[in-house]
Amino acid sequence: MRLRASEWITVGYFAYLAGAAALVCWNGRRGQQRRVIGTAAAVVGTVVTIAWLGRPAVLLRDWIPLVYVLLGYWLPALFVTTTNPAFERTLLTLDHRWLGTRNVITGDRARRPVIELLELTYLFCYLMVPIGFASLYGAGLREETDRFWTAVLVAVLACYGVLPWLPTRPPRVIEGEPTRSSGLIRRLNLHVLRAASIQLNTFPSGHAAASVATALAVGVRLPSAGVMLGLLALGIAIGSVVGRYHYAADALAGAALGLVGFVISRFV
What we know:
Layout: H1 5-23, H2 30-53, H3 58-63, H4 65-74, H5 85-99, H6 112-123, H7 128-138, H8 145-162, H9 171-175, H10 184-196, H11 206-219, H12 223-242, H13 248-265
């Protein structure tokens, strides 16, 4: 049995969460502590078991990192009991310095089509990774599987792993939802966030990190698809800031981590 590089990254990340959970004082929240440790142990056991099964489980092995990404996102939120107001103020100060104090989502009528397009682009942040991987798979480039998941997992798990220590609220929660932000796609984005989000902001942005890592990992073998995914990644990063789903610093740091994940994956 031999683990892939991306599987070692997965094992390392969930072992980190389990170790942190064992060391942190949970102040009566033993149920959350057991959930973190138990889920982390289950993921590690799953990774090892699937690798041990070998060829009969190869399709599952290739695609199951999508589940690891989701669990890696939800699990760190169990550590959080309150957010970090000082860090929130820092992020907001940077936003106001770089973008001004006016909430761009309430722009004049001429900007509305652009804003709606960015909202639609941001909605694709949930589909970016599976679309990217399916592009490689459909092109017969299964040999890129480990490199693809290495790029994505390095990028996104680095974002999620910081959450217990730097928890913040999304800027839209602090600033308040603009009265003129009632477009259909905006409402759909907010509905998805209410249903599936951990209701916390990740710094760096996991969406920006995953999108950039995906676009680069696909583009190195499929340039045309990489360009389209790259434009989508850019739209996701900008849309996350314009829609106040993320701070500008989140998006910039996430994009940088996406690049780091891609560079590391080239050594696999």
